[in-house]
Design a protein that fits this description.
By secondary structure, the chain is of the alpha+beta class. 11% of the residues lie in helices and 24% in strands. It has one domain. It has 1 helix and 5 strands; from the N terminus they run βββββα.
């Protein structure tokens, strides 16, 4: 893996054969982990409400935090209009 960016406040790590090769960030809207690469051209957005980088998936563009999505699935919260 080339051009991996080692994040200062990483949420996880990617290991290959017992050796850490990259840090990962976690999307606040879907919970997936992704590797940040310099100059990759990947579409990433920054959510000003969550103050975190999102994965870039178009479904993650509206700010609906992952914890709220889980509460809606569990039936503990009513769905938001844009869910």
């Amino acid at each position: 893996m080339a051009n991996e960016k080692f994040e200062r406040n990483a949420h996880g790590a990617y290991f290959v054969e017992g050796r850490e090769v990259a840090h990962t960030l976690q999307c606040p809207h879907c919970g997936c982990h992704f590797v940040s690469r310099r100059g990759s051209g990947a579409r990433r957005t920054f959510c000003l409400r969550c103050m975190a980088v999102t994965c870039g998936n178009p479904a993650c563009d509206p700010c609906i935090p992952f914890e709220i999505k889980l509460e809606v699935m569990e039936g503990r919260r009513k769905p938001w209009p844009n869910l």
